[in-house]
Amino acid sequence: MTLGTVPATAGTARVEYMCGSVGPVISPRMFDVTITPPATAHQGQTATISATVVQTVYPATRPVPAGEYEAVFHVALEGAGVEKVRMDLTNPAIPAGELLRFSGSAQLTFPNTGTVSYRPDRFGYSMLGCIPRYPETVPVVATTRVS
User: Fold this and answer.
1) Is CATH 2.60.40 the classification given to domain 11-146?
2) Which phi and psi (to 5°) does residue 108 adopt?
3) What is the distance between the alpha carbons of residues 18 and 129, in angstroms, rounded to a whole number?
4) 22 with 130: CB under 8 angstroms?
5) Pick from 39, 35, 12: nearest CA to 106
6) How large is the C-alpha radius of gyration of the chain?
7) Angle CA 92–27–62, to nearest 5
8) Model's pTM, two decimal places?
9) Which residues make Cβ contacts (< 8 Å) with residue 137, sequence separation at least 6?
């Protein structure tokens, strides 16, 4: 069963990632990550989890058409028997001078009762792959209470 409209709870964290492409160059980059799950769910139900990832530096040097970049974002989940969720993200149209941002969503089924916590994890777009620089400091940004 898929959840209809339910109250959502959103949380945002600034996460420092180490990003690299082909070759040995790896650089730190900061992203503001917002994750929006439902505030509550029932065991066995499926709900939409959405995310927005915004690069905090390096504004676009040219207009970027919507959908030019495809990204993959992983959310680490804790509690209630779920470990990770993968989201496909795309960019909206971005005028030159504005920050690169991505958004998207995924469906998540809650198999057990309890509290599910959401923590930003791996992220990648174009040929750039990013992992949290200090994984132990990445905060929980949202929770869902499953009954």
Assistant:
1) yes
2) -135, 130
3) 8
4) no
5) 35
6) 16
7) 35
8) 0.89
9) none
